[in-house]
Design brief:
322 residues; mainly alpha; 0% strand
Length: 322
């Protein structure tokens, strides 16, 4: 399996960032913190994390169902798990999201498959942003003003981006009136993608965002439980406020699966509220271990389910959108 230069660069970036982060917080302090993890709390965190994966798959199902011809929920849960495997273990050009798009394309078409994966991620970040925004405005604890400002700006930006998805006619009219976009060699393909991205109703976006709220709760609970397992007592509000910022930085295409970037962001943000850098990075690394374990499970499902030729029963009972 050939490793592309861009992916090799991402791996190197992750390694360099990890070395810098570990050197900054102190390798001995970090390893001491990791050795103190209570396995019972770790197992609970893993269980909560897996529940979150199921909620994400249901959110994806809602978006696809809103476009018509829904895909079986079990199939989407399977693709989510397999996508985690690809993201975690295969640093190639086939990322987890790409796998989900490729496998979903025969059901919904390439443009719509891409739009559902993209919108699923965007509404996921919106859910965490809305909760963080509420805490920032009501009870932000002692979080520095510049961090709160970043939370508000990011939350507002994500909200604006999601709302833009419901204004398809306006956006497409504005874009295709300009000669620049119309004269692009891939204008036809771009038009299909933009139409797909802006084909969601306000109701579909609202339902997806509502499902993102309990998912965000599992994400915050997972990290909080890991901190308890390390013997830490970190205010829950910090996890709530920092989640959208961490989520946004780790999806930047500059590292391998966000590794290194996530740990550095954890360290900087939690250090701003007095948490030791080694403790914050330890929580982040343990959360990555949870993702690795989920990826291993996805790999087992990939082998068992035969990703290339899965049996799809379109008559399978579907969960009913609420």
């Amino acid at each position: 399996m050939k490793l592309k230069p861009t992916n090799l660069i991402k791996i190197l970036v992750s390694l360099i960032l990890l070395i810098i982060v570990i050197a900054t917080v102190g390798a001995e302090n970090l390893f001491d913190a990791l050795r103190g993890i209570d396995l019972g709390w770790f197992a609970l965190a893993l269980a909560i994390h897996l529940i979150g994966v199921g909620i994400r798959a249901y959110r994806w199902w809602l978006l696809i169902a809103s476009l018509g011809a829904p895909v079986p929920f079990g199939r989407l849960l399977y693709l989510y798990m397999v996508g985690t495997f690809f993201n975690t273990f295969l640093p190639t050009g086939i990322g987890g999201d790409v796998v989900k798009i490729i496998e979903l394309a025969p059901d919904r078409g390439g443009a719509h498959a891409f739009s559902t994966v993209f919108t699923d991620r965007l509404t996921g970040i919106l859910g965490s942003s809305l909760i963080a925004l509420a805490v920032a405005l009501v009870d932000p604890a002692d979080v520095p003003r510049d961090v709160l400002t970043a939370v508000v700006i990011v939350s507002a930006g994500i909200l604006f981006g999601v709302l833009a998805l419901t204004q398809g006619k306006f956006i497409n009219r504005a874009i295709w009136r300009t000669r620049f976009f119309s004269n692009l060699p891939f204008a036809g393909r771009l038009r299909k993608v933009l139409v797909a991205l802006t084909s969601y109703s306000v109701g579909a976006i609202a339902r997806s965002t509502l499902v993102s709220l309990p998912f965000t709760a599992t994400l915050i609970a997972t990290q909080y439980v890991l901190s308890i397992g390390l013997g830490l007592r970190i205010d829950t509000r910090y996890f709530i406020l920092f989640t959208p910022l961490i989520a946004l930085t780790q999806v930047l295409p500059i590292s391998f699966n966000g590794l290194g970037v996530r740990e550095g962001t954890f360290g900087v943000l939690f250090a701003s509220v007095g948490v030791a850098g080694s403790d914050a990075v330890a929580v982040s690394l343990l959360y990555y271990v949870l993702r690795v374990l989920t990826g291993l499970l996805g790999g087992v499902l990939y082998v068992i389910g035969n990703l290339r030729h899965p049996p799809i029963d379109r008559q399978t009972d579907q969960p009913t959108p609420t």
